[in-house]
UniProtKB/TrEMBL annotation:
It catalyses: tRNA(His) + L-histidine + ATP = L-histidyl-tRNA(His) + AMP + diphosphate + H(+). Its EC number is 6.1.1.21. The lineage of its organism: Bacteria, Pseudomonadati, Nitrospirota, Nitrospiria, Nitrospirales. Keywords: Aminoacyl-tRNA synthetase, ATP-binding, Cytoplasm, Ligase, Nucleotide-binding, Protein biosynthesis. It is an enzyme of class 6 (ligase). It comes from Nitrospira defluvii. Residues 1-351 form the Aminoacyl-transfer RNA synthetases class-II family profile domain. It is found in: Cytoplasm. GO terms for molecular function: histidine-tRNA ligase activity. The keyword Membrane does not apply. Its main location: cytoplasm. This is Histidine--tRNA ligase.
Amino acid sequence: MIKAIKGVKDLLPEESPRWRFIEETARRWALRYGFQEIRVPIFETTTLFARSIGATTDIVEKEMYTFADRDGSSLTLRPEGTAGTVRAFIEHNRAADPRPQKYCYAGPMFRHERPQAGRLRQFHQFGVESFGVADPRADVEVMSLLWRLLSDLSLPGLTLEINNLGYTDDRARYKPVLVAFLKGVEQHLCANCQRRIEANPLRMLDCKVPDCRTATEDAPRLADSLSPAARDHFERVTAGLQAIGIPFHMNPRLVRGLDYYCLTAFEVTCSHLGAQNAVGAGGRYDGLVEQLGGAAVPAVGFAVGLERIALMLPEAVVIPSTPRVYVAAFGTKGADAGFSLLDELRRAGVPADMDFRSASLKAHLRQADRLGALYTILLGDDEIDKGIATLRNMQTKAQEDFPIRELVSSLQSRLLTSVSTPFSS
Ligand code: ATP
Ligand code: MG
């Protein structure tokens, strides 16, 4: 038997309403904030990711699915969404468009990791990228979108942590100070951190290994190397968050696993997730567009993991669904008329179903129950002759007779007006 690849999951029909609910909620919130959906390819030139995410990051060092195309060029399945979005932004010269360039995306990402709960090899992210605005209100806007949408999903135990990574110059000033300190405690660091002392020392602040944490407790703080401009930007970010009532915590060790961030970095964690407790993260990345060959365009964004949201989404969250109608048709005439009626209901926008395998009333009603139908239409040869059908409310079991030609409009008004349809754009 052929099975799915390790770390890759099927989403069965029972689970998809929850997923659709999460995705639609995220999209609705993003559209409300003026972000518009972009869909970029799932695979790109390897160089794109190596150059943007950073050569000494976990992702590029060991997590990418990279393979040779038939002509020998190196391709990679996208491990995240920012690189491709930035490439598209540059390629389509969107910097020349005077409108705000605020994009959102959703889709699968691929990383070769050790699979466990909330950590997969094919997983899904929803993310946003806001291009062109250096104003700290753009940072506040994306953090507020992230916070509002996660809160709207009623996720429990959320914390927003933020940190100031400063400008490139600030980090350049901090790096030798940190490296000097790390050399002094080198023997206490994990192999990964030892290897990165020179190449990517900031990552060590983020290391989860307890010994590394202890050894670096008294490490010099990045905050002490920050320029007045970086401090000012961050103060306006925190003031903005306070002004609109978004709670946050300062976390001076938050550095993020991707190299392109500057100034504001943030992460939302959930106390109910165990080891994989990060729900989403993001920050400002003012240098990335230029680094990838575009103009000097400031940008800020975030991405959330949909598997982790799905794990935390309370069971009690009511997923809106349109009640269904089941058509139970018997006899020769009844079966023909029932099949036509089924088609008419569907064309009128009423979700309707019939099990063509069922023959008896009992079998039909059992299926109607299993399918969660709100109403069943009973239609046999006798009913056809009289031009009426019986409508059975599956919850109350009450039955009433209806002229067949009035059925569709009656069900349309009963079912389609009472359902709150989530508005799209
Ligand atoms: P972690 O520290 O958990 O590895 P990360 O810093 O690598 O996370 P990001 O690259 O910032 O994660 O991605 C944003 C979000 O995407 C994460 O907060 C998480 O919810 C989700 N995510 C990342 N990697 C995976 C994965 N392998 N499986 C499922 N979700 C993931
Ligand atoms: Mg990771």
